[in-house]
C-alpha cells in the first residue's frame, strides 16, 4: 500500500507530513512518499527562492521529471537544504517538487508520480492554513508555494484530500478568520504522534511545525515567531487537523486560479505581484541582500545571555510566553550558522526554559 502526501508549502510541511502519516495511517503499509519543495528559510539556504534538481548532487530519478532526495544528496553551494537530513532521519521517501515550470510543470510531475506509485491515497497538507487565503489578506506573507501546489492538485484526474493542520499557526491568517473555511476535524494530534519526529524538531528551523508539535504536547500561551516578531496563540485547537474542500479552496484562492496555466516560476511570481501586491521571493531577495551588508555578530556567551535577558523582558511586556530558536537567533542579530550554537548555549545555561520544541519566557518574578 502506497500513500502520497504533498507538502503544500515545503519547509516544515514535510516534517508535519511525516507526523501526519503516522497519525492518520498508524504505520500500516510502507511510509508515505512525501512530495515537497526544497524551499528553506534564509537561515538554512542563503539563496532566495526554491531549489530545483540542478541545485543538488546525488538525486535519484523516480520518474522522468520527479527526483527523490536520498540521505547522501547534497545541495550545490551556496545553496542549502534540510531535505537530505530529513531523508536520513525519516522513514519516508522524500520527492522533490520542481516549480521551475510553474503550475503546469508541477501538474505533470504529480501525474507522473501517481502513475508510477499508484497511491491508495493522496493528501495535500498545509500547516497553518494560508492555503485557504483569498490573496488580499493584509497578514498574508507567503502565498506562492501553496498556490502552486493547490493549482496543480486541482488539475489532476485523481482525488486529493486537502488537510489543514493547526489553523493560524503559521502566523499569517488568524485562526478565527479560518473557521468558516476549514471543514470537519479529521484528528487531534497528541504527544504520541509527535514522538517519531521529536529528534527532527531538535534541529529543523520550521516554526509552524514546531508550534503544531508544541500544541500537541499541551503547551499553551502566546508564541512570538519570525524576524517580524509575529504573535501566534497556542491553544488546544492548534493540534487539530481539518479537512477542507479542495474545489472551494481553489475558487477562493485568486492567486491559485491565476497561475493554473503558468509554465515558469517567473510567470507565477508575476501573477503574485499583480494579485497580492508582492512576491515572497522578492522579499527573500531583499532580505538576502540586506543580510550580506550586516556585520557578523560574535557569539560571546556572556554578552549573548545579556541580550537574551533584554529580549525576554521586552517580549514579556508584549504578553509572550514562548518563542522559537529562529526568532531568538534573528532578534539577537545572529546568522543562520549560529543558530545551533546559540541553541546549545541556551539549553546548557537555562535548561528549565526549554519547553520542547519551544523556548519558554517565564513571567517576571
Keywords summarizing the entry:
alpha/beta; seven-stranded mixed beta sheet; 16 strands
Fold and architecture overview:
By secondary structure, the chain is an alpha/beta fold. Helix content is 39%, strand content 16%. The model has no long low-confidence stretch (mean pLDDT 95).
Topology, please?
Blueprint: E1 3-7, H1 12-25, E2 33-36, E3 56-57, E4 60-61, E5 67-68, E6 74-75, H2 83-89, E7 93-96, H3 102-117, E8 121-127, H4 144-153, E9 161-165, H5 175-178, E10 185-188, H6 191-194, H7 198-201, H8 207-216, E11 221-225, E12 230-234, E13 240-244, H9 246-252, H10 254-258, H11 265-276, H12 280-292, H13 301-317, E14 322-323, H14 325-331, H15 339-349, E15 354-355, E16 358-360
Parallel strand pairs: 1-2, 1-8, 2-7, 8-9, 11-14
Antiparallel strand pairs: 3-6, 4-5, 9-13, 10-13, 11-12, 14-16, 15-16
Helix pairs in contact: 1-8, 3-4
Amino acid at each position: 500500500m502506497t500513500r502520497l502526501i504533498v507538502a503544500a508549502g515545503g519547509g516544515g510541511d514535510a516534517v508535519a507530513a511525516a507526523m501526519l502519516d503516522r497519525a492518520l495511517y498508524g504505520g500500516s503499509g510502507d511510509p508515505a512518499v512525501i512530495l515537497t519543495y526544497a524551499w528553506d528559510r534564509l537561515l538554512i539556504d542563503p539563496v532566495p527562492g526554491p531549489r530545483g534538481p540542478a541545485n543538488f548532487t546525488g538525486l535519484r530519478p523516480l520518474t522522468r521529471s520527479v527526483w527523490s532526495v536520498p540521505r547522501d544528496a547534497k545541495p550545490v553551494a551556496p545553496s542549502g537544504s534540510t531535505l537530505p537530513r530529513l531523508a536520513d532521519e525519516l522513514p519516508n521517501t522524500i520527492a522533490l517538487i520542481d516549480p521551475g515550470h510553474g503550475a503546469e510543470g508541477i501538474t505533470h510531475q504529480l501525474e507522473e508520480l501517481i502513475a508510477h506509485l499508484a497511491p491508495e491515497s493522496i493528501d495535500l497538507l498545509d500547516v497553518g492554513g494560508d492555503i485557504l487565503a483569498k490573496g488580499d489578506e493584509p497578514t498574508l506573507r507567503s502565498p506562492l508555494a501553496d498556490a502552486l501546489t493547490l493549482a496543480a492538485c486541482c488539475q489532476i484526474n485523481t482525488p486529493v484530500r486537502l488537510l489543514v493542520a493547526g489553523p493560524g499557526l503559521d502566523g499569517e491568517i488568524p485562526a478565527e478568520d479560518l473557521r468558516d473555511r476549514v471543514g470537519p476535524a479529521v484528528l487531534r494530534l497528541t504527544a504520541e504522534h509527535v514522538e517519531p519526529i521529536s529528534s527532527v524538531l531538535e534541529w529543523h528551523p520550521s516554526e509552524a511545525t514546531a508550534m503544531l508539535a508544541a500544541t500537541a504536547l499541551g503547551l499553551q500561551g502566546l508564541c512570538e515567531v519570525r524576524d517580524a516578531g509575529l504573535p501566534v496563540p497556542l491553544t488546544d485547537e492548534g493540534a487539530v487537523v481539518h479537512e477542507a474542500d479542495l474545489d472551494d479552496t481553489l475558487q477562493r484562492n485568486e492567486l491559485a486560479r491565476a497561475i493554473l496555466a503558468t509554465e515558469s516560476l517567473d510567470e507565477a511570481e508575476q501573477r503574485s505581484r499583480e494579485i497580492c501586491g508582492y512576491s515572497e521571493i522578492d522579499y527573500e531577495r531583499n532580505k538576502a541582500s540586506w543580510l550580506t551588508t550586516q556585520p557578523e555578530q560574535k557569539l560571546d556567551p556572556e554578552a549573548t545571555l545579556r541580550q537574551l535577558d533584554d529580549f525576554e523582558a521586552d517580549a514579556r511586556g508584549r504578553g509572550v510566553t514562548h518563542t522559537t530558536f529562529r526568532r531568538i537567533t534573528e532578534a539577537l542579530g545572529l546568522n543562520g550558522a549560529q543558530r545551533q550554537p546559540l541553541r546549545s548555549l541556551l539549553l546548557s545555561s537555562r535548561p528549565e526554559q526549554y519547553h520542547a520544541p519551544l523556548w519558554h519566557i517565564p513571567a517576571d518574578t
